[in-house]
């Protein structure tokens, strides 16, 4: 799945959060967005997913050269876009098993067989070192931060999306859990050749998930693009090194 974000400008309550942002993610590529707090990283992920809280005032988001701006969130999900949230919500009264079965069947002409579904679910629970008992609990109810992240990766593996948006995947994970989650993401990426947009504050996760490109977001724009060495530079010197580099905005991808 190819993703093109063209001159995207977004407002929240009359405040411009993203301004003429450009980004091109080709099939199979891994892109990382980094930047200080409050610069629009999570806004970008939510806008791609179709959150109604944000107003797109200009620009476009193209999936395989077709605009998705008029699509609802569920339509974008059925298209193959998946978002792992920074803070996944709890859903009381709906078990993880029920939630995933309904999600799968919403994109099928005939319902999935119960045996096949349970078998696949159990395999994925094992891959993430999750107890089978978790299947019968409410979605994310009484889950720790790390368990919520693992639960999102199980959802990813079951739903088989083509484009992953991973918002602060490393948040709430201990060292062992981070290794396990990254291992599952990388195995899925290698198997499905999916595209990935990873949002993170820290360089540590990039030692495990090697990106093709790292982008620095500031004032709603991408001001610098490079490889993983750019993340190393940020870890060493911080974002202050970009304070006088506003001209770096010219490195944005320009679309006709």
Question: In a nutshell, what does this entry contain?
Answer:
32% of the residues lie in helices and 27% in strands. It is an alpha/beta fold and 256 residues long. The protein has a domain at 3-86 and 161-251: Rossmann fold (3-Layer(aba) Sandwich).
Helix content: 25-40%
Shape: globular
The helix-strand sequence is EEEHEEHEEHHEHEHEEEH
Radius of gyration: 18 Å
Q: By helix and strand content, what is the structural category? A: alpha/beta
Q: How far is it from the N-terminal to the C-terminal residue, by CA?
A: 20 Å
Number of helices: 7
**The CATH architecture of the domain at 3-86 and 161-251:** 3-Layer(aba) Sandwich
- Give the averaged pLDDT, no decimals: 90
What can be said about the biggest beta sheet? 6 strands, mixed
CATH topology of the domain at 3-86 and 161-251: Rossmann fold
Name the CATH class of the domain at 3-86 and 161-251.
Answer: Alpha Beta
CATH H-level homologous superfamily name of the domain at 3-86 and 161-251: P-loop containing nucleotide triphosphate hydrolases
Number of strands: 12
Low-pLDDT ranges: 247-256
């Amino acid at each position: 799945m190819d993703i093109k974000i063209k001159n995207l400008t977004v407002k929240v309550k009359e405040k411009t959060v993203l301004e003429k942002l450009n980004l091109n993610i080709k099939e199979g590529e891994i892109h990382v967005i980094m930047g200080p707090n409050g610069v629009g990283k999570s806004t970008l992920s939510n806008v791609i997913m179709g959150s109604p809280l944000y107003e797109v005032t200009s620009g476009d988001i193209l999936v395989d050269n077709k605009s998705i701006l008029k699509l609802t969130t569920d339509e974008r999900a059925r298209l193959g876009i998946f978002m792992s949230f920074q803070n996944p919500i709890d859903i009381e009264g709906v078990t993880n098993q029920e939630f995933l079965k309904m999600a799968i069947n919403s994109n099928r002409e005939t319902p999935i067989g119960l045996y096949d579904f349970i078998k696949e679910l159990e395999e994925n629970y094992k891959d993430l070192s999750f107890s089978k008992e978790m299947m019968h609990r409410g979605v994310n109810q009484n889950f720790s931060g790390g368990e919520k992240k693992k639960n999102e990766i199980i959802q990813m593996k079951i739903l088989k999306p083509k484009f992953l948006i991973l918002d602060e995947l490393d948040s709430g994970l201990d060292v062992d859990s981070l290794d396990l989650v990254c291992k599952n993401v990388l195995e899925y990426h290698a198997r499905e050749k999916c595209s990935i947009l990873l949002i993170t504050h820290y360089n540590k996760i990039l030692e495990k998930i090697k990106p093709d490109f790292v982008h620095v977001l500031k004032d709603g724009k991408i001001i610098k693009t490079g490889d993983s060495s750019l993340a190393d530079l940020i870890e060493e010197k911080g974002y202050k090194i970009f304070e006088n580099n506003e001209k770096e905005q010219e490195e944005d991808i320009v679309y006709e």
